[in-house]
Amino acid sequence: MTPPAPLASFQLLFIHGFAGDAGHWDEVRELLDPGCRGVALDLAGHGARRQTAGPFTVERGARDAIEKLPRAGALLVGHSMGTRIALETAARAPDVVKGLILVDGSHAPACPAAVMAEMRAAIRRLGAAAAMMEIVE
């Protein structure tokens, strides 16, 4: 059995969750071994890319992640919604995704169209900020 490679030999791509940004990974990235390269992705509509036009989908996030992946490959680290994007990225680019670290992942609803329709109705009824607070609480 081949011993696992030290983490320092991997490149990592960090993918934040909903309403997050690349900066959410700063403290984690500071703890990495000096030889370990960790890049954090700002998803479209978030952080430095918050002005980017939608749609904001898991598929788009995966395309963005694939563009950031080095040719040699990387380990993907996803949090919350970022876990879905990491999984989709791995499915689309298995040759460059060397592994997954999934943190506090969410599961896909049984009927995503119905969930989205309910969210849109809540946003129209309450406004975006109040609708998000209702979801969080």
Strand tally is 4
CATH fourth-tier homologous superfamily of the largest domain: Alpha/Beta hydrolase fold, catalytic domain
Fraction of residues in helix: 25-40%
- How many structural domains? 2
Name the assembly state. single chain
Distance between the termini: 48 Å
- Low-confidence stretches are none
Q: Supply the CATH class of the largest domain.
A: Alpha Beta
Q: What's the overall average pLDDT, rounded?
A: 84
Q: Label the structural class.
A: alpha/beta
CATH topology of the largest domain: Rossmann fold
C-alpha Rg (nearest Å): 16 Å
> Helical element count?
5
**Residue fraction in strands:** 15-25%
* Mass-distribution shape: globular
Tell me the CATH architecture of the largest domain.
Answer: 3-Layer(aba) Sandwich
Task: Report on the biggest sheet.
Answer: 4 strands, parallel
Task: Give me the side-by-side strand order of the main sheet.
Answer: 2-1-3-4
Would you mind describing this structure in some detail?
Helix 1 links the parallel strand 1 and strand 2. This protein has 137 residues and is of the alpha/beta class. The longest helix is centred in the C-terminal third of the chain and has 15 residues. The chain has 2 domains: 100 residues, 3-Layer(aba) Sandwich (Rossmann fold), CATH 3.40.50; 30 residues, no CATH class.
